[in-house]
Structure formats: structure tokens, C-alpha cells
Amino acid sequence: HAEKMTLRKAALKTQEVADAAVWLLSSRSSGVNGQGIIVDAGMGLNFFDEELVKASSRIS
User: Fold this and answer.
1) What is the pLDDT of residues 1-11, one digit of tens each?
2) Residues 6+ positions from 2 with CB-CB distance below 8 Å
3) Fewest Cβ atoms closer than 10 Å to its Cβ: which of 1, 41, 55, 59?
4) How far apart are CA 50 and CA 33, in angstroms?
5) Domains of the chain with CATH codes
């Protein structure tokens, strides 16, 4: 259910992580130094998704 926590409601693909790594290793990222790049499909920004909070708060 982790994909429901992302802003796009879809899981991160291995290729997307690989693409970020390839970009970091390329000359196109020459202006990026000493930074952490988070590749998480926006999961870190969507902690309080209304639907997920409601689903986890239901009393059985």
C-alpha cells in the first residue's frame, strides 16, 4: 500500500532510481555538489493523505 502514500499514487520504479543515479554520474549534474537527492515519488511529502488517515482510523 506504500504507493498510495506517493503524490502520484503509483510506486517508484527501479528505472527511475537508476535514471537519477545516471544523471548524477553525468556531466549534466556538474552543478550539484554535496547534496542528498531523494527519489521517493513524493512519498515524503504526503504523510497525511486524507483517504489513508480515514482508512487507518476506522474502528472495526
Assistant:
1) 677 777 788 88
2) 11, 43
3) 59
4) 36
5) 2-57 (1.10.8)
| DSSP label of 9 | S
Predicted confidence band of residue 51 (pLDDT cuts 50, 70, 90)? confident
Residue closest to 12 by CA, chosen among 21, 2, 25, 22: 2
Tell me the pLDDT band of 39, cut-offs 50, 70 and 90: very high
Q: Measure the CA–CA gap between 30 and 45, rounded to whole angstroms.
A: 27
Query: Which residue type does 11 have?
Result: A
DSSP secondary structure code for residue 43 in this structure: G
CA distance linking residue 48 with residue 56, whole number of Å: 11
Lowest mean pLDDT among 10-19, 25-34, 37-46: 37-46
